[in-house]
Amino acid sequence: MLIKVSNSGICHSDTIVQDGGVSGAAVAGASRIIAFDPVEGRRETASSFGATDLVDPTAVDLVSTVMDLTGGAGADYAFEATDGIRTVLDVAG
Q1: Which domains, ranges and CATH numbers included, belong to the chain?
Q2: Is 53 helix (H, G, I), strand (E, B) or coil?
Q3: Is the pTM of this model over 0.90?
């Protein structure tokens, strides 16, 4: 199911995995936002908008990294805005 961040039901205890822009998850109150992007500048921008963890998916296995960061629980929500639906399905807990 595809949903907008504003309609997702994100709450303060949720972990979010999202590529690129993370401001919607931050505004929604997510406590942990794992941002992934192959471009360092975009990861830095994500940090300035509230990302708590930054991942370069070209340097590590994204799914393994998310599982490590979340103690094996995976994400409560995963958003992908380019075309990697497989990634979204893999990291969702």
Answers
A1: 9-91 (3.40.50.720)
A2: strand
A3: no
